[in-house]
Amino acid sequence: MRRSRCNVVKSGPSFFQPALTIPAFIDSALTRPRAGLSGEAATRVMAEDMRQAAQREGGLSRDDMLLLGWTAAQIETLVPAARERAQALAGLTA
Predict the structure, then answer these.
(1) How much is the pTM?
(2) What's the pLDDT tens digit per position in 26-63?
């Protein structure tokens, strides 16, 4: 009976140390929570989200906003004012 040795990997000491820490750049890559925002600050951040999405993808849907961390109540109340602000930031007229 023949034995195949093609898939046998010899074990040995590893020269690479595992990285056990999370890099600091991850904090800047995550989307900051928006559920805690209210009033003018929430409108400003939502308008900026809309402006950036319009530039990248053509706009935001309700599902996109939920994925960004907005609550359904925030979406219902802040969208009209945030849309106007985003259009003003982008230099568009309503």
Answers:
(1) 0.63
(2) 555 556 678 888 899 999 999 999 999 988 888 889 99
